[in-house]
Amino acid sequence: MDRNTFRKLKEAIKNKLVLSLHEKLMADRLTQLQDAVNAQAENICNSIGVLQAYAPPSSFPDFEKSPRKIEQPKEDYCQTFANLIANTAKEIDVLIDFLPNEDISQDTQEDFKRFDKENKDAALKLEKVVVAGEVLLEQIRKALRDIAQSQLEIQKLSNINGNI
């Protein structure tokens, strides 16, 4: 690989790292948003469970049985879950506000396309280098096997000559 090709490959990798960092920041925000949405779903499910467990029973006029009394918890679970749901909703709103704007300039879009093309070119070159490296590695392994085999044969011959 000549210096110019190596320099271009290095530059393409650097550009890919910059783009990757941008994507990573975006992915981190999306991950945070997904975690917050999951937490909100969990809060809502748990609040429904608490309502089912501690809500006062309803009485029906045509039903003869009187509803059983349910002991009310010492804590106000309704208020606790209302606060949790409200705080998580605020967190979701903040995370959505910090997501990047979809309006990307034409220059930035062209840069992304160029970076993508350079990345694909660099990946192809890297694949070729890896294949060439694997071929060389196999040749080296074969040479080492041949050397080891030759040494074993030399030792055998030395032992035979020493015994005569």
Q: Could you give the count of β-strands?
A: 0
Structural class of the helix and strand makeup?
A: mainly alpha
**H/E element sequence:** HHH
Radius of gyration: 35 Å
The shape is elongated
Low-confidence region ranges: 17-21
Could you describe the largest sheet, including whether it forms a barrel?
none
Write down the overall mean pLDDT: 80
Helical residue percent band? over 70%
- Tally the helices: what do you get? 3
The portion of residues forming beta strands comes to under 5%
Distance between the termini: 55 Å
Outline the structure in words.
The protein is an all-alpha fold and 164 residues long. It is 80% helix and 0% strand. It contains three helices and no strands. The chain has helices spanning 3-54, 77-97, 106-163. Helix 1 packs antiparallel against helix 2 (77-97) and helix 1 (3-54) crosses helix 3. The longest helix has 58 residues, at 106-163. Residues 17-21 have low confidence and may be disordered. Keywords: Activator, Nucleus, Transcription, Transcription regulation. One of its GO terms (biological process) is regulation of transcription by RNA polymerase II. One of its GO terms (cellular component) is mediator complex. It is found in: Nucleus.
Please render the helix and strand layout as text.
Elements: H1 3-54, H2 77-97, H3 106-163
Helix pairs in contact: 1-2, 1-3
